[in-house]
Amino acid sequence: MDKDVNINLTMPDAWHREDNVYVLGKAFFKDELYEKGGLCSLLKEVEDAKEMKSLLEKFNGFYGIIKECDDKVLVGTDHIGKVPLFYSKGVKTDQIVIGDSFNKVFDNLSSRRWDSLSITELLLGYPSGLNTIHKDISRVQAGEVVSIKKNNDQLKKYRHFVYMRNPEPVHSEKKLLREMDGILTRATERLVEASENPIILGLSGGFDSRLIALLLRKVGCEDVVLYCHNTQNPDDMRISKKVAEDLGYRWFGFNYTKEDVEEACSDNDLNYFFNELGSGGGNLINPTGLVKYSKFKNRASFPDSGTTVSGSHAGAPANFLPDRWFFDRKKISKDFFIKGLLRKHHKGLRYIYESTEIPDFLEERLFNSLIGIKNKEFIEKYILGGERWYWQERTAKRLSRHPLVRRTYGYSGWYPLWDREFAEFFEKVPFYLRYNKRLQKKYTTLLYKKLCGKNRRTNKKRSDKKILPIAKKAANALNMDKIAWKTYDMFKYHKNRLQREAVYDSNLKYSFIPREGFLKRYTGREYYRFFLSMESLNHYLQREELEEIAKKVPTEISKAIKRNAGIQTKALSKS
After folding, report:
1. Residues 6+ positions from 395 with CB-CB distance below 8 Å
2. Nearest to 460 by CA among 231, 227, 236
3. Is 63 domain-assigned?
4. d(CA 323, CA 325)
5. Is 106 contained in some domain?
6. CATH code (residue 72)
7. Under a CB-based contact definition with an 8 Å cutoff, are residues 75 and 98 in contact?
8. Distance (Å, rounded) from C-alpha 258 to C-alpha 132?
9. Which of 79, 224, 407, 509 could in theory staple to 143 by disulfide, Cβ–Cβ 3.0 to 4.6 A?
10. With contact defined as beta carbons under 8 Å apart, do 171 and 409 qualify?
11. 166 found inside a domain
């Protein structure tokens, strides 16, 4: 007997439906832009996952797709998973539930089967692969098509995109720069065609957003608004304004305060987003992110609609690889790889990864989430694994903002530096030109000089890691990097523990927690994302359920859960 299909959407008016096809977003196909009815028409004759995979391999855009066929349901998302999609799996009910948020599926299930592995991952960063904190809910992964049979819940999955699927390095920098120029020009032209004017770009003092601004000027786009805020680097505002002047674009500066974050938390919007979206599959609702839209709306001369553009970057993965992987090694161990990955991407609780308990607990899960990586590999394979992690996990689950958030405030979004053609281009770029985004930084510098007749420096990264360079040198010389990192972890942990007030006062992102509560709960290890994740768990799980989970997870995670179980700020109070 076939199950009923229950499709629950956060934005039913934004999703376009024709017959049994639902689409959200836009995509280029054969150099033409399709959306709404046009996108539905391309999918009308598709009847199985392989057909959808073949079609989506030719799409270039950011979208979500749901199609109900006679005997199955097909669900697919774009090459970086910018439209999150979730589905129920293996549940003994008479329905298949599909939604564009974790909560839209969770709210339609009666089971409470919590996954201790995914809860550990959420507290540290985000659940990996298809996993969520609920054992009966899965997430469609970046570049994936999923087919669910109605009569037996049988799943088939295909990837229409994998980052660096077939690396074939070209070692001519001149040739690569010439090809990059053509691809980025076309990507920017697609951005302009797909956008709702004006294009609104957050311009920091760094390279990525600067590259987008330069490309917009290169293709002759005039309706552009640039802005910058004060939360990342002290040099950003000054450099950003100078770049905007050089390019002749309007510029706005925003000053974020703790009071702004506290106001965002007291506003009903935060609770609304949490209740609609949830965070059981990653993508935490960050109060600091909502401040931006509040600032937009309260500045009289700032556009109240348009397309906001992100500097998220297809070339960034090599920039998020642990430095310790490159201490004159040709081969690294599985344990070494896992610790490096966790330290770089999972910072909910910090200074804990040199022990083996957490890496051992998560090892199998993390390796199962990676594509094409075995237990023991040469360093080149692990580098590829780290880059794919950034594409599949970090980009989709940490850097992405749910379309509902932008739409609520009147904006849409686009990601020109994750244009599919540009992402596929990196198969030709050798690692030494991908690392630290060397090739695109050179291209950006050359383009700035060509368009503006000069160069302008970027910001300098802030760092209080004065002990780390010394530790690295000693570790490299003595092959004792494990000792060096343990020393560094101990130093940072005790420094933060003894300076709780300074930590709170210097970081706006902690402001959603009342000061008194922070000083009681903070031990020196917790990053703001841990507290946001814990807020979510306190929303979903009863205290007794959390206590059961605490018995199944590593010691540091268990302690943190017990210390914070049942504590909720007003920000995410249960409705």
Report:
1. 80, 81, 142, 312, 418
2. 236
3. yes
4. 5
5. yes
6. 3.60.20.10
7. yes
8. 32
9. 79
10. no
11. no
Sequence-separated (6 or more) residues with CB below 8 Å from residue 464? none
Q: Within this chain, do residues 43 and 191 fall inside the same structural domain, yes or no?
A: no
Are both 380 and 408 inside the same structural domain?
no
Asked if 318 contacts 437 with a C-beta cutoff of 8 angstroms, the reply is yes
**pTM greater than 0.85:** yes
Mean local confidence (pLDDT), 397-414: 92
* Other CB atoms within 10 A of residue 110 CB: 7
pLDDT in tens, 458-506: 776 544 445 445 545 544 544 555 666 677 778 888 888 889 999 999 8
| Tokens 């639902």 belong to residue | 22
Catalogue the E-assigned strands of 310-404: 331-332, 377-378
Of 379, 399, 419, the residue at which a domain comes to its end is 399
Question: What residues contact residue 456 under an 8 Å CB cut-off, 6+ apart?
Answer: 239, 242, 243, 246, 448
- What's the structural domain count of the chain? 5
Report the distance separating Cα 239 and Cα 233, nearest Å.
Answer: 10
Same domain, yes or no: 278 and 427 = yes
Shortest CA distance to 397 belongs to which of 284, 235, 476, 560? 284
- Which tokens go with 254? 């925003």
Are 477 and 470 in contact by the 8 Å Cβ rule? The answer is: no
- Mean pLDDT for 522-529 is 93
Cα–Cα distance for residue pair 442/439, rounded to 1 Å: 5
Residue 571 exposed, middle or buried by CB count within 10 Å (0-12, 13-18, 19+)? buried
Q: Which DSSP state fits 349?
A: B
| Structural contact between residues 319 and 435, judged by C-beta atoms closer than 8 angstroms | yes
Spatial CA neighbour of 557 closest among 364, 389, 362: 362
Quote the domain boundaries for residue 380.
Answer: 316-399
Given a cut of 80, is residue 93 above it in pLDDT? no
